[in-house]
Fold this sequence. Notes:
Blueprint: H1 3-17, H2 28-46, H3 50-56
Amino acid sequence: xxxxVVSLLIAFAWTIATADAQPVGHQxxxxxxxxxAFDRYLEAVSANDLRAMASMQTPDGMT
Length: 63
């Protein structure tokens, strides 16, 4: 086999082997924590719970 054919076969095999890999930097635990915090915030806003909203306020004004 020629070098080009071997190279194409290696590239094809690599593509198949990594097809279902997670994106670089994907952190499911961190994503779940962020979504949970956002859910708590939206629940507080929906309930007009001023205490809960105040407890999520950070010193720089961001929730």
